[in-house]
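Anyone opening a protein record will find just a pair of labelled lines. A complete record is shown below as an example.
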Amino acid sequence: MTWRPWVGLVLLILALPAQTQIATTPATWAGVVTYVVDGDTVHVRPSIGGAVHKIRIIGIDAPEICQTGGVAARQALQARVLRRSVTVRMQGFDDYGRDLATLYLSREDVGQWMVQRGHAWSYRYLRDPGPYVQDEAHAKLLGRGLFGEMSQEYPRDFRRRHGHCLHQP
C-alpha cells in the first residue's frame, strides 16, 4: 500500500473540530442557574448559549434529599442561586457525568456559603478534611442548620446504609 499525502490532510481536517471544541471550552464561564437538584447539584445554562450543564459543587457534601436536612439544604441553595447569574470554575467530571466545579455568586464561593450556614459538610476524602473544614467547625460551634440537629449523619454514611434516594420530594 502506498502513502497518499491527502490521507494525512483528511485525517487532520477531521480531527480539527474536536480539538477546537476542547480548546474553546473555557475553564471558567458565566451562566444562569436554571434548576437546583439538591444541596450540592445545580443546572447552569451558559451565558454564551449551548446546553445546560449539570454541576456538582465541588468541596461540599450536602445531605441526600431524603435525609434529614436534605430538603432544607436544597431550599437554601435555591433561595441563594436560582435564576441568578453565577461564575462556574470547572475542575473536572465525576463518575455520574456531572461537571465538578466551584460556583461563585458575584465573588462569593457558594459551596463555602452552604457550609457556613450548616447546609453541607466540607467534602472529606481519605485523610483530607476538605476545603471548608474551618467553616464547618464554626457552623457546628454555632449550631447552624443541620449541625443544630441531634442526629446528623454524613451523607456518604447515609448512602452506604440506605443507598441513594430514588425520588425527590
Q: What stands out?
A: The longest helix spans residues 5-24. The chain has one domain: 26-162. Confidence is low (pLDDT under 50) at residues 6-24. The CA atoms of residues 28 and 125 lie 24 Å apart.
